[in-house]
Design brief:
Strand order of the largest sheet of chain B: 15-12-14-13-17-18-16-19
Structural class of chain A: alpha+beta
Helix content of chain B: 25-40%
Structural class of chain B: alpha+beta
Largest sheet of chain B: 8 strands, antiparallel
Oligomer: heterodimer
Strand content of chain A: 15-25%
Number of strands of chain B: 19
Shape of chain B: globular
Largest interface: A-B, 97 and 87 residues
Strand content of chain B: 15-25%
Strand order of the largest sheet of chain A: 15-12-14-13-17-18-16
Distance between the termini of chain B: 26 Å
């Protein structure tokens, strides 16, 4: 499987376009240069590639027909939701098409008694909660982009959010999918009932970054709103103390619904933007949300406060009502956009570390920031050790971006060295594929490639992503080629 | 018999004392009456790798096993050359208690693991059967077995975050990570949960832990009608109670359990057990709410605490494996929670038609029904087939977990794998091109 695809002639393109129009209709095929520009990147805007066409199918049948054509003509295709991804997962492929699922945006089934919702991939994350909240339920995964990002994209990236510490990420809330395989076949895996016999293909497809096929329907689990919710923030002089508080809280057996840290950079820019009531002179704040039965939350509150005080919290403020709680969260959720006020450009990193290492990693990041002469703002899902360092830079300054990427790479190396991961929720995509080998050796990557080859032996589905180097598929029935010892010693050649 | 050279090689790899080759001893390791040719107990990941290289070279089938407590799972194997036991791979490699994560070798028994974790007041949130008989961590992962705790914590799929695997050709890979949140690369841990040793041999696992809750009680309610019982169940699942386990037990099993456990039980009643584990006050508040919901639906019962409570759940977890097993067939049917009464009604209809007496325990919040009965082969097969199509019509399915060999040869224990079947086959053949890992039993 390679990522290079031959340049197609314009007569071939015309014919192919006609074929696509035949399948979807004129209004579902985008081919003018002006319109194609809108699809040349996702939220990782530093990389741009214009697709040859964009198609907007309305049914799984249309997706299947389009993919069958791509399969026949060996045209690579890239699935796309709302394009809010931060790792370039929806970046088009040279000489390839983009399949946008934005027209497949219907909620198909809301089954309150069984706590299931079946949706098309283009449904926006927040719509699911909106559809079930009158019944007292919600959909737990809540990425910051939940107002616009789609369930299909969430499935591809296994999106998290501020509440996945206690409730898990997308993979813990998806029970089944209907998908179009890279050869056009439509299959259904999992479903509304549990424990389907056979391999857990649903678990494999969630987080596969659109490399295994195109999901056309998703069965989700919804959960009941908790009896009580309490949110507090604590301010600290040093971000390290906030970090130590986090592992202190989990070590006491308390698993809050969410724990978020912001450092002084973030606090200042957020306060200027949304006035969440954070103390602007603090070195860091830690936001803690407890939920569950009232008596449980009541019992946990003093434990949390004790840990915070032990770690030198200056001020602890408990939200007095739902309104104030919203405000606390609003500050956190607007951290990325607010950063635009203090720096014209920033690069978001997405490393993960064991939460017990938070304090030491934060110190190392501060040292790296100094070494590179670039400011790093820290805002992160501290509860599950998911860091989002924002490297602030100036794109008009020669060499600043290169330096930024280098620093960001160093941060990932620190994360992996501490036993962590290069991505907690944004995915590897195009952006971090070269960093994947920090975590996985050749054997590990080969095992992953066995999966990809089972689904997509031609390598047409979202190629050029995730894997550090292009990998080929061994034809079924052919054994893996082993080097003969004589060859290895350089004593013989294979002819 | 294995070739002399293969036997010597096996002995060289694991050591004389870690092999079983005599037919008298091998008989005890038979799978569905198929006697293996060798049982080996490697003590390191490298030894597992060497065994797999040898097996690949000679095209020998390898059946991975841990505690050996679920050797009845799967279709009858066509042959069994080598049973590879992970029993000696039983070390806790890391218990990062403040991260609520542990990494261990796969052969560790759940019992040993829990007692180790218990020292830090933590536990692995899974309570499948066979623990007292030595069920291992790797075996639970490979079979995706679970118990009543799944309502609150899910199955191993929600707990496993990383693993190390020896492939059919002996190469070693890892997947996932040691942190609770990670999306780097494909989610290999998910693929291996429930893969029944067909894709590789799990040698290490990293999983998330929870703190042991401070207090526990169970409200056990009697209902004279399934409708009342089910209404109470639906009200409980849609309430804001933080329930740990929720079990619905049919009258036949209820009677058997009450004889065993001296619990108060009214004849011909369904039982609904609501377990809450939390801080003491939260347990008491919620148990009284659960009681109210049951009583609003004509249910009455008792609160179980301490040893009585533990004994009750122990019986539920180990059902039906603790009951006598003459010609027993155990099935796991999965339906929607709202369809549980329909499945129970269809079972009642079958019992009069086919002369079976089913014992049923339902993980009521998950729709998982564990059904056990004993009957003549022909009646068993007819009952399985009708139940399976009934479950399928409800959007569910039925897997036969244990059955007499004569029954197993007549049915596929897994049933319809659906439209994902061919991709499962491709994954299997990519990971195990010579089909030597647990062949014929699953995929």
């Amino acid at each position: 499987m390679t990522t290079e695809h031959k340049t197609k002639s314009s007569s071939w393109k015309n014919k192919f376009r006609e074929k696509l129009i035949e399948i979807i209709g004129n209004e579902g095929v985008i081919y003018t240069e002006d319109e194609l520009i809108a699809y040349d990147s996702d939220a990782l805007a530093g990389h741009r590639i214009k697709p040859i066409f964009v198609v907007l199918p309305s049914t799984a049948g249309q997706v299947s027909q389009v993919i069958k054509e791509c399969h026949k003509e060996e045209v690579p295709f890239v699935p796309r939701g709302a394009g809010t991804g931060l790792s370039g997962g929806a970046l088009p492929t040279e000489e390839g098409i983009v399949i946008s699922l934005s027209k497949m945006n219907k909620i198909l089934d809301v089954d309150i008694p069984n706590q299931r919702v079946v949706v098309q991939p283009g449904v926006v994350n927040l719509w699911v909660t909106n559809a079930v909240s009158p019944h007292g339920y919600y959909y737990a995964p809540d990425p910051s982009s939940q107002l616009v990002c789609t369930i299909g994209g969430n499935v591809a990236e296994n999106s998290g959010g501020v509440h996945c510490l206690k409730y898990g990420a997308t993979t813990n809330h998806v029970l089944g999918v209907e998908m179009v395989m890279p050869d056009g076949e439509i299959i259904e895996v999992g479903g509304k009932t549990l424990d389907h016999p056979g391999y857990d293909l649903t678990g494999l497809v969630v987080g596969s970054e659109g490399l295994l096929g195109i999901v056309t329907q998703v069965t989700l689990k919804i959960i009941k709103k908790p009896q009580t919710v309490k949110t507090l923030f604590a301010s600290f002089d040093h971000v390290e103390d906030a970090g130590a508080s986090v592992s202190g809280i989990t070590a006491r057996g308390v698993i809050p619904a969410g724990m978020e840290i912001m450092d002084s950079f973030c606090i200042q820019s957020v306060e200027a933007a949304v006035h969440a009531g954070y103390p602007v002179d603090a070195g860091a704040i830690l936001l803690v949300e407890l939920d569950g039965p009232e008596a449980e939350v009541e019992a946990q509150m003093p434990i949390v406060e004790e840990v915070l005080k032990h770690n030198k919290a200056i001020e602890i403020k408990v939200a007095k009502d739902a309104e104030e709680r919203e405000l606390f969260w609003k500050g956190r959720k607007s951290a990325f956009p607010a950063m635009g006020r203090i720096s014209s450009d920033y690069y978001v990193q997405d490393g993960v570390i064991p939460r017990s290492k938070l304090a030491e990693v934060l110190s190392e990041i501060a040292e790296l920031s100094e070494k590179y002469g670039l400011r790093v703002a820290n805002v992160f899902h501290a509860g599950d050790g998911n860091l989002h360092p924002l490297v602030l830079y100036d794109s008009t300054k020669e060499g600043d971006l290169e330096k930024t990427l280098e620093l960001a790479g160093e941060i990932l190396r620190v994360c992996v060295d501490k036993g962590g991961s290069i991505t907690g929720e944004h995915g590897v995509g195009y952006d971090k594929k070269s960093h994947l080998s920090l975590m996985f050796d050749e054997n590990d990557l080969n095992a992953m490639n066995l999966i990809r080859c089972a689904f997509d032996s031609k390598g047409l589905c979202n190629p050029g992503k995730l894997f550090p180097t292009p990998r080929t598929c061994v034809e079924p029935g052919m054994k893996t080629y082993h080097v003969h010892p004589v060859q290895k010693k350089g004593m013989g050649e294979m002819y | 018999m294995l070739k002399k050279s293969v036997i010597n090689n096996l002995r060289n790899i694991v050591g004389e004392g870690n092999t079983i080759l005599e037919s008298d001893s091998l008989k005890a390791h038979s799978l569905d009456d198929v006697m293996p040719k060798a049982v080996v107990f490697p003590s390191s990941v490298e030894e597992v790798s060497e065994i797999m290289k040898l097996a690949t070279k000679h095209s020998l089938s390898v059946i991975p096993t841990g505690g050996g407590t679920k050797s009845f799972l799967g279709n009858k194997p066509p042959s069994a050359d080598i049973i590879l036991s992970t029993k000696n791979l039983n070390q806790v490699l890391e218990h990062a208690s403040s991260d609520l994560v542990a990494t261990t070798q796969s052969g560790i028994s759940i019992e040993d693991l829990q007692s180790e974790l218990g020292k830090e007041n933590q536990f692995l949130a899974i309570d499948p059967p066979h623990i007292q008989h030595g069920a291992s961590l790797g075996g639970i992962i490979a079979s995706n077995d679970s118990g009543p705790l799944r309502f609150r914590y899910g199955t191993f799929r929600e707990l496993l975050i990383g693993l190390k695997v020896v492939q059919a050709d002996g190469s070693i890979f890892k997947g996932g990570a040691k942190v609770v949140k990670n999306v780097a690369g494909y989610d290999l841990p998910k693929l291996f949960v429930g893969s029944l040793g067909t894709l590789g041999i799990i040698v290490e696992a990293t999983f998330r832990l929870y703190a042991v809750p401070e207090y526990s009680q169970t409200y056990l309610a009697n209902f004279s009608s399934i409708d009342d019982c089910h209404n109470a169940l639906m009200m409980l699942t849609s309430s804001d109670l933080a329930i740990t386990s929720l079990e619905l037990i049919n009258p036949t099993l209820a009677l058997a359990l009450s004889e065993n456990n001296s619990i108060k039980y009214k004849a011909d009643n369904y039982l609904l057990a609501v377990r809450i584990r939390n801080v003491e006050q939260a347990v008491k508040d919620q148990i009284s709410k659960a009681k109210q919901i049951c009583s609003n639906n004509n249910g009455s019962g008792t609160v179980l605490s301490d040893e009585v409570e533990l004994g009750f759940w122990d019986d539920v977890i180990n059902f039906p494996w603790a009951l006598s097993n003459t010609q027993r067939t155990v099935s796991k049917a999965s339906v929607l929670v709202s369809d549980i009464p329909k499945l129970l009604m269809s079972l009642d209809a079958l019992s009069s038609k086919n002369g079976i007496t089913p014992y049923v325990s339902v993980r009521a919040g998950s729709g998982i029904c564990i059904i056990s009965f004993s009957a003549e082969d022909s009646n068993t097969i007819a009952s399985i087939n009708s139940l399976r199509s009934f479950a399928a019509a409800l959007g569910g399915h039925l897997v036969v977990q244990e059955a007499p060999i004569s029954v197993k040869s007549e049915i596929d224990v897994w049933g319809d794998l659906g439209s994902g079947r061919s991709i499962m086959k491709k994954i299997k053949s990519n990971f195990d091109p010579d089909n030597i890992l647990n062949p014929g039993r699953y995929i």
